[in-house]
Amino acid sequence: MLRRTTLLLPALLLAPGTARASVWLVTEREAALGTAEDAQGTRAVTRGPGIRYVAPRLNAVPAGQPFWLRIEFSGRGGAAVNPASVRVTLLRGGRIDITSRLQGYITASGIDIPEALAPAGKHALRIEVADDQGRQSAAVLDVDVR
């Protein structure tokens, strides 16, 4: 099932050197691209892994601070989540695969980025994951940075 979640975050004003310990979820260049035509996503019934948004909580990130991004995966029917199957795609200017820059934050239990960064704007991310039985799930997460 494809779900869509919207997060409202304050705009990030970063001090020099802040980005070293952080990861850019969306770069300034990517944010300048147009929204992908398929950014709305679709819904379908699936037996694939569950995808659940955990953090940040709405309006919990003060301006000028990186935010914690946490998405949990859960297997269904005894199946284990396959972390190698995870794909994170930015729905801007078509589709931009950003999985490689997030690789160190992806595990079988989810995506956990303690200090994610994104420029001001609304950014749609498509998260896809499969289990060890090949069943797939996808969700679109809207990150709205203010």
H-E order: EEHEEEEHEEEE
Give the number of domains.
1
Structure classification: mainly beta
* Large-scale geometry: globular
Separation, N- and C-terminal Cα atoms: 28 Å
Question: Beta-strand percentage?
Answer: 35-45%
CATH class: Mainly Beta
CATH architecture: Sandwich
Please mark out the parts with pLDDT under 50 across 5 or more consecutive residues, or reply none.
7-20
Helix content: under 10%
Radius of gyration: 15 Å
Signal peptide: 1-21
Keywords: Signal
Write the layout of secondary structure elements.
Blueprint: E1 4-9, E2 23-24, H1 28-31, E3 50-55, E4 67-74, E5 81-90, E6 96-97, H2 99-102, E7 106-107, E8 110-117, E9 121-131, E10 136-145
Parallel strand pairs: 1-10, 2-8
Antiparallel strand pairs: 3-4, 4-8, 5-6, 5-9, 7-8, 9-10
Signal peptide: 1-21
Keywords: Signal
Primary descriptors:
2 helices; 5-stranded mixed beta sheet; 5% helix; Immunoglobulin-like; mainly beta; 10 strands; 146 residues
